[in-house]
């Protein structure tokens, strides 16, 4: 049976990512595109750099653009020159999912004319776009404003944070899904990080799914600065203790799913007697008003099975609305 376009896109993307050498990229692309006519037709809209794979010099006709378009390493105004346009107007009438990706660019919203910016010349428009994925890329403000409007339903942003209040947009309630991935290791000033995320999530009232995934999370981070009442999913690359977790949870009133990396035993400085750690913790704390239903722990803790059962019981006591507690057993 013939593979669907979505499946072919996944295969092409997987086959041509993480190749830093341009010549290797080009050779591997040729192998992938040689599979069949369908793969060649879709492949030219996902691979590395426009005009590089296959050496095509003429602009692509808009009629040839599929509903799913991915531009990787999309740098500079020439990205739109690869499409045939009339008098500067470029309308992607059939496009539903657009991905713009380029790792290594400066993580800020850049004004018109700045280097490495995705310029809107010719002026592109996307009347049917429902899903927009931005990965490590800077976009001219006016272009982003034209993208962030109905019928857009899903916005995914990775490795790039910007203040939505700098845009001429009042809110994001037209969205159904907002997902953000960010590496905290790239932030030297956590106050700026919280200011930006507070601004973004303040505009997310009414959005059904609001997810933030953070990597390289230090235990020293001050969650008291977070004002994320509209956040529904929080995924943290974090190894921490039960006590830390219990102090963090009340700060996120809208969460229904929390994922962390691993639970660890407290150090001797944090707890003199590990045997009394759980009973003492229960005496110090009260059950929270948390709405969290799913608690996911990615890696197996260094506990015995018996102690893990006691930890799960404590988690359910502290978060009464828990339905799922997922802890790997091996």
List its traits:
about 325 residues, 14 strands, ten-stranded parallel sheet, 9 helices, alpha/beta, two-stranded parallel ribbon, single chain
Helices and strands, with pairings:
Blueprint: H1 5-15, H2 22-33, H3 37-43, E1 68-72, H4 78-81, E2 89-91, E3 97-101, E4 123-125, E5 131-135, H5 141-147, E6 154-158, E7 177-183, H6 190-202, E8 209-215, E9 233-236, E10 239-240, H7 242-248, E11 257-260, E12 262-263, H8 277-284, E13 294-297, H9 305-318, E14 324-326
Parallel strand pairs: 1-3, 2-4, 3-5, 5-6, 6-7, 7-8, 8-9, 9-11, 10-12, 11-13, 13-14
Number of strands: 14
The percent range for helix content is 25-40%
- Main sheet: strand order: 1-3-5-6-7-8-9-11-13-14
Envelope shape: elongated
Specify Rg, calculated over alpha carbons: 23 Å
Termini separation comes to 38 Å
Q: Report the biggest beta sheet as strand number plus sense, adding barrel if it closes.
A: 10 strands, parallel
**Mean pLDDT across every amino acid position:** 77
Beta fraction: 15-25%
* Number of discrete helical segments: 9
Secondary-structure-based class equals alpha/beta
Order of helices and strands: HHHEHEEEEHEEHEEEHEEHEHE
Query: Low-confidence stretches at least 5 residues in length (pLDDT < 50)?
Result: 18-27, 46-57, 103-120
């Amino acid at each position: 049976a013939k593979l669907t376009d979505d499946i072919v896109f996944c295969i092409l993307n997987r086959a041509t990512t993480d190749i830093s050498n341009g010549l290797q990229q080009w050779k591997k692309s040729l192998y992938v595109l040689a599979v069949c006519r369908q793969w060649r037709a879709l492949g030219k809209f996902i691979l590395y750099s426009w005009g590089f794979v296959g050496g095509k010099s003429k602009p692509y006709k808009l009629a040839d653009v599929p509903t799913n378009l991915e531009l990787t390493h999309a740098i500079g105004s020439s990205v739109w020159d690869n499409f045939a346009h009339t008098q500067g107007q470029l309308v992607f009438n059939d496009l539903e999912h657009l991905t713009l990706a380029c790792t290594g660019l400066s993580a800020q919203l850049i004004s018109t004319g700045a280097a490495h910016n995705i310029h809107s010349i010719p002026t592109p428009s996307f009347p049917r776009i429902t899903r927009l994925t931005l990965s490590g890329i800077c976009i001219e403000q006016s272009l982003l404003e034209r993208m962030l409007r109905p019928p857009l339903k899903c916005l995914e942003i990775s490795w790039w944070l910007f203040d939505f209040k700098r845009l001429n947009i009042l809110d994001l309630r037209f969205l159904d899904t907002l997902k953000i991935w960010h590496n905290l290791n790239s932030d030297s000033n956590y106050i700026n990080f919280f200011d930006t995320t507070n601004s973004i999530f303040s505009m997310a009232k009414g959005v059904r799914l609001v997810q933030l995934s953070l990597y390289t999370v230090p235990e020293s981070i001050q969650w008291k600065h977070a004002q994320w009442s509209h956040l529904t999913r929080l995924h943290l690359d974090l190894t921490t203790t039960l006590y830390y977790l219990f102090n963090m949870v009340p700060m996120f009133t809208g969460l229904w799913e929390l994922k962390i990396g691993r639970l660890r035993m407290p150090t001797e400085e944090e707890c003199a007697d590990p045997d009394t750690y759980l009973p003492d913790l229960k005496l110090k704390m009260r059950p929270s008003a948390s709405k969290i239903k799913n608690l996911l722990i990615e890696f197996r803790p260094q506990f015995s099975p018996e102690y893990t059962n006691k930890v799960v019981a404590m988690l359910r006591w502290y978060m009464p609305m828990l339905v799922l507690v997922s802890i790997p057993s091996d």
